Amino acid sequence: MKVKAYYEKTVFLYVQGYLEFKENDIEMGKEKMQQAIKVFKILDEKAMLQYYTDHYHKLIYNVSKSV
Q: What is the CA radius of gyration of the chain?
């Protein structure tokens, strides 16, 4: 059960960061998304790490492209 709690909390942290990023609190949003990605790396959750890392990079790339 604890693994599920870590998963849910980490996904929630990522989503919080994503929403903050989208609402123009870019630095805080990036920090939270990066923290969530680090947790997936520490827990050796390869699929989750890949999914959220890809999402993060696409998000950052699209923002830097539009500036």
A: 12
Nearest residue to 52 via CA among 2, 10, 5, 4: 10
CA distances from 45 to 1, 24, 37, 41, 48 (A): 16, 29, 10, 6, 6
Quote the domain boundaries for residue 10.
2-66
19 contacts: CB under 8 Å, gap ≥ 6: 29
How many separate domains does the chain show?
A: 1
45: region left, alpha or beta (phi > 0 left; psi from -120 to 50 alpha): beta
pLDDT digits (tens, 9 = 90+) for 22-40: 999 999 999 999 999 999 9
